[in-house]
Write a structure and sequence with these properties.
Structural class: mainly beta
Radius of gyration: 11 Å
Strand order of the largest sheet: 1-2-4-6
Order of helices and strands: EEEEEE
Strand content: 15-25%
Largest sheet: 4 strands, parallel
Distance between the termini: 25 Å
Number of helices: 0
């Protein structure tokens, strides 16, 4: 994902497949609702730049390992 990406909108990658690999940009600030719902990710490492994760962003995504950002201002859900 290019460093110019700061936000991922509602259902951006919902149910597009399994075994998908994402390398998040270090400038990513917002992950909208249901962005990765049903995607089949196993490992998710979010950069410290993330400030907001929307409702159900990773619903049914099959995550086994998750690293949340070390951001004291992180907001999850509404």
């Amino acid at each position: 994902m290019p460093d110019s990406v700061e936000a991922l909108g509602f259902q951006a990658f919902r149910e597009i497949g399994y075994g998908i690999y994402f390398q998040f940009s270090n400038t990513l600030k917002t992950i909208g609702s249901k962005v990765f719902s049903g995607l089949g990710l196993t490992d998710v490492y979010l950069p410290d730049s993330v400030e907001y994760i929307g409702d159900l962003a990773f619903q049914y995504a099959g995550i086994k390992r998750l690293k949340l950002p070390a951001n004291p201002n992180l907001v999850i859900g509404e």
